[in-house]
Design brief:
eight-stranded parallel β-barrel, 11 helices, Class_II_FBP_aldolase, 48% helix, 286 residues, Aldolase_TIM, Fructose-bisphosphate aldolase, single chain, FBA_II, globular
């Protein structure tokens, strides 16, 4: 299926879109296989850090396009946590359907000005823009789980910049290896009421299934995940290597890693899009 626009993927997803980061081709294949298995749309994310690891955007972008073309569910391609304007411009030129400009570390006025400029340019190219307000904990060593996004500031930021989606700080933290984060659901509901664009939950690896589901019901529309899926992928590879210390063929340990990650992607997509149970009323017990 041809690459889908990010707003189309968001609209086509019953409740919340899973947005999963990939570094390796095997992880890309796992995300697409999992989405096809769940028969749900998905957003493939390539971060600025992943580009730095490979030394260039082109190889992974080309692989993503080829793999997405062979998939039968809607898939969007997103540049995640970009701080470099030249990388955003390259991603747009290479057919990415959305970009996330990360100016959360900048002072308010500078973040607004830079985000507005990038958004205006991206909109001319018909590219969807996500931004961030209220630095998410754990990014670049800034572990600050107490940071929260103010709803009034969020509404003003969206109005002043014209962004299409907003990542907000509500209690999660990047790079968490355990799923113990507590999301401020009242704040999510307040942000949903104040902000007219889809809300994005970053650091979702730190939230367990019940917390993620509650966050979606409270108003989150895009759920970003990386570390948890990396742990599933690496865990399966490690098990193979420990079981056979003489193993040298990477296909032998990357195949089960890819399989495990695909299964978790499918499970998460279904979990994120399970309808909220109807409230139990007194009459239901009669």
């Amino acid at each position: 299926m041809p690459l889908a626009s990010t707003d189309r993927v968001l609209a086509a997803t019953p409740l919340a879109a899973g947005a999963f980061n990939v570094v390796l081709i095997e992880q890309l294949e796992a995300v697409l296989t999992g989405a096809a298995r769940a028969q749900l749309p998905v957003i493939v994310q390539i971060s600025e850090n992943a580009v730095a690891y490979h030394g260039a955007l082109a190889p992974l972008a080309a692989a993503a396009h080829a793999a997405i073309d062979a998939t039968d569910v809607p898939v969007a391609l997103h540049l995640d946590h970009a701080t470099r304007t030249d990388l955003i411009e390259e991603a747009v030129a290479r057919g990415f359907t959305s970009v996330m400009y990360d100016g959360a570390h900048l002072p308010w006025e500078e973040n607004v000005a830079r985000t507005r400029e990038i958004t205006q340019w991206c909109h001319e190219q018909k590219v969807f823009v996500e931004a961030e307000l209220g630095e998410i904990g754990g990014k670049d060593g800034a572990h600050a789980p107490g940071v929260r996004t103010d709803p009034e500031e969020a509404a003003r930021f969206v109005a002043d910049t014209g962004v299409d989606a907003l990542a907000v700080a509500v209690g999660t933290s990047h790079q968490m290896s355990d799923r113990t984060a507590t999301v401020d659901l009242d704040l999510v509901r307040a942000l949903r009421a104040a902000v007219p664009v889809p809300l994005v939950l970053h650091g979702s690896s730190g939230a367990d299934d019940a917390t993620l589901q509650a966050s979606v019901y409270a108003g989150m529309k895009k759920i970003n995940m990386s570390t948890h899926l990396n742990a599933v992928f690496t865990g399966a590879a490690r098990a193979m290597l420990e079981a056979d210390p003489a193993l040298v063929d990477p296909r032998r340990y990357l195949r089960p890693a890819r399989h495990a990650m695909a299964g978790e992607v499918a499970r998460l997509l279904r979990q994120l899009n399970t309808p909220q149970p109807a409230p139990v009323t007194a009459s239901a017990h009669r």
